[in-house]
Amino acid sequence: MKQHIKRTVKDILTHRFLNAVTIVTFAFAVLIVGAFGLFFINANHTMDTWKKGIRMLVYLKPGTSEAARLDAKFRLQDIAGVKEAVFVSKTEALTNLRELMKNRASLLDNLRENPLPDAFEITIDPSVRPESGMSSLAERITALSSVEEVEYGQKWVERFTGFVNLFKFTGYGLGCLFFIATVFIVANTIRLVLYSRREEIEIMRLVGATDRFIKEPFYYQGLIQGALGSAVGLLVLFFIYLSMVNQVDKGFASDLISLRFFDIGVILEIVLIGMVVGWIGSFVSLKQFFR
Amino acid sequence: MNNHAEKTDKNAIIRMFHVHMRYDAKHALADISIDITKNEFVFITGPSGAGKTTLLKSLYLAQPVTEGQILVDGMNLSRIPKRRIPFLRRKFGIIFQDFKLIPSKTVYDNVALVLEAMGKKPRLIQKKVKSVLRVVGMEDRAQAYPLSLSGGEQQRVAVARAVAGDPKIILADEPTGSLDSQSADTIFTLLEMFHTRGATVIIATHDQRLIERTSRRIVQLEAGRLQSVADI
Ligand SMILES: Nc1ncnc2c1ncn2[C@@H]1O[C@H](COP(=O)(O)OP(=O)(O)OP(=O)(O)O)[C@@H](O)[C@H]1O
Ligand SMILES: [Mg+2]
After folding, report:
1. HEC string of B48-76?
2. A291 near A198, Cβ under 8 Å?
3. CATH of domain A55-151
């Protein structure tokens, strides 16, 4: 075992260039798949935080009595998918509006009476699926007798969710495709290595080396290339990620998007998968070469 | 004749029966039958293209014969499964006509490779490689790469690699081919030394100097045919 690893390391050092080519190839594949995965993870994560923050405004009919209002509150809270219903009176709403308008709030002084309706601000349970659950929830709320209108940012939520879902499926598809492509590329690179070393391999055979002895370092090389390639790919991805975090932090969207990288478990998984791919790549090319 | 054949039968390490080898239409070996005894020292000679290299190759299955049978140390070459070929080859120490040293490996690693392939222990490998390199006078160049060596030096490394695994049979293809007479002498003396240690030595050569000065058996090839087996 120790001897094999020694031979492998020696081999890699002797054939630095070809090994570097394989590792770079690997790194590229991991970078592309990783970028995809990272986008997906972050899109999902962002969706979740947005969903948590999705509110629905339920406007009450003018002149709703206190008792009817209380009744509405209980009815709202009984509806599945509603987490909380907070009453916002039209006076409070106007104060909020004044605050929002700040120095232009004087415009509101000219109003003879408060034009805003009383309302409930509803926090929605994150389990409600924005693309389907929101509209049916809104329908049920509108059906309540004292409710005039329901308002929520439906369109963009629906669109974004649709987009993420589309991305999820193409993501899985592309992931598989890239996995196969990587195996293929790695197998080809290793075959190139084998081809460039065919004389050496032939000599080893002539002096009595078994095929197993000749193949062994290539398997280890595949594993090492897989591990190093994935590590390099992830490292590059991490730097790209860092620079993007910087951009977002400086930019306007910092409140809306919070980015994060793969956690350590996923990183280890990726490196492990890289090693498996390296091994399979070696296996495929060795199989062809040694027929 | 029969009597003689039976005597050699027991002591023969290599037996060839009516061996033919064709490359496409070309007959490289034609009806070769020959016995080589254990610890014999044999020259195979003949003009260029006579089939000397082909004959040696047929022994370690670098080229399967088209017809006939070959026995090496009790193994019937036509019945050896592919996975056993490496073990057949370990019976031989081969000095190739074109050396076949691995250019990306040092002298040391080239020699060590044979022993590693045999699965020897690292400590033993180290000791053995040093010792054979010393024997051929290349211990100082152990860390050099083959292409930085002169032809004679490469040949000596090839000899070291051939004998490192203590083979029963040494095959030397034109071992003094491109050497001046002094380097040739060194190599030849080395081969004689391994012969006295018990190895069977087969040398393919058209170097007349080498042949003239020995009283060994000479096998003469001519266009793939055995001309005469001169026993002396
Ligand atoms: N791989 C091959 N394919 C086709 N013909 C070959 C091949 N190898 C050898 N030959 C032919 O077989 C014949 C014998 O070749 P071989 O190499 O055995 O000769 P040789 O006696 O070793 O010659 P030399 O003294 O030049 O080394 C030659 O005519 C050669 O052209
Ligand atoms: Mg020859």
Report:
1. CCCCHHHHHHHHCCCCCCCEEEEEECCEE
2. no
3. 3.30.70.3040
The pTM assigned to this predicted structure is: 0.74
Question: Is B8 a residue whose pLDDT tops 70?
Answer: no
Is A78:A291 a contact under the CB 8 Å cutoff? Answer: no
Which parts of chain A register pLDDT below 50? none
Torsion of CA A61, A67, A71, A76, to 10 degrees: 50
**Which residue in A10, A207, A211 is closest to B89 by CB distance?**
A207
- Residue recorded with tokens 């006939």: B68
Instruction: Tell the residue number behind the tokens 């509150």, with chain if given.
Output: A73
| Strand partners for B41 | B201
What ipTM was estimated for this complex?
0.89
Mean pLDDT over residues B60-64, rounded?
89
The domain B39-62+81-231 belongs to what CATH superfamily?
Answer: P-loop containing nucleotide triphosphate hydrolases (3.40.50.300)
With a 6 Å cutoff on the Cβ, whether B206 touches ligand 1 is yes
Task: With residue B22 as reference, give the H or E element that holds it.
Answer: strand B12-23
Residue A209 has its nearest CB partner, among B86, B94, B105, at B86
C-alpha dihedral over B139, B141, B145, B149, to 10 degrees? -110
Q: Which residues contact B213 (CB under 8 A, 6 or more apart)?
A: none
- Ligand nearest to the Cα of B21, by number: 1
